[in-house]
Amino acid sequence: MIKLGSHISFKKPDYLIGAIEESLENGANAMMIYLGPPQTTLRVDPSQYNYDKYLQKYSSVIPSENIVVHAPYIVNPASPAKHKFAIDFLISEIKRMNTIKAKYLVLHPGSSTEYSKKDALETLVKSLNEIIAATDDVIICLETMAGKGSQVCSSFEEIDYIIKQVNSERVAICLDTCHVWDAGYNIKNYDDFKSYLVAHDYLKYIKVIHLNDSLNELGAKKDRHANLNKGFIGLNTLKKFVFDKDFQNIPIILETPYVDNKPIYKQEIEMLLDDIKLINATEQQEKLF
Length: 289
What we know:
- This protein is an alpha/beta fold.
- The protein has one domain (3-287): TIM Barrel (Alpha-Beta Barrel).
- Helix content is 35%, strand content 15%.
- The chain contains 10 helices and 10 strands.
- The protein has helices at residues 16-25, 51-57, 83-98, 117-133, 156-166, 177-183, 190-199, 235-242, 265-273, 283-287, and strands at 3-7, 30-33, 67-70, 104-107, 139-143, 171-176, 206-211, 213-214, 225-226, 251-254.
- α3 (83-98) runs parallel beside α4 and α4 crosses α5.
- The radius of gyration is 18 Å and the shape is globular.
């Protein structure tokens, strides 16, 4: 089945309940949250998440495996100078995820900063090994990056290297359409792009997709998201990801900009689906609409 949603605010007092209800209003059956502000590592106690209420009311509509968590931007597990902080925080973040049984953690792999790319990649491998050894269940999805500055993992080859070095089923890929476009992968030639993923055996690692248009031309390495059909990728290409049988049962998440200080995820989900409804025709789900 198609699993489609967006980044949703996760905030007091309702936390999980508020996020689920906003997602349902948007016509979504999946969602992505940050467990706290994305620019900080401040977190509240998981007892405030309202997980028990979620189980009673909404777990059959948006199950926990459709809830994606994004790590904050400020951790850098690839930095030899900062990876210890990243490791400690990400271990604690995964344990918070375990309390709501969320399955996927999307992680920006980091930047080399003043170090060599080789050092950064080796540091990332060590960081992931430590995090995996100290945690359970959650799959860490390394996000494909645009190649801005000294970012690592803007190529599938680099992510593949990390995955093979760590050698754990708990490391996977989050494919961001804006980022791969900005990194130089022409996803508008969709069949060729898919053939590339298949030929190099990358397809099996993709567990989450960030679906965004791009304000930049191919290969710009700038990372500026655009609303659907307002960028250089275009709606027709983005729809192909949604209706691709290889991406069924993979959470596809919109991270597009606000318009007039408001999200337009509901409209964009409608644009993608052409009046197809995501919610299964069960009695409980029908009552929610």
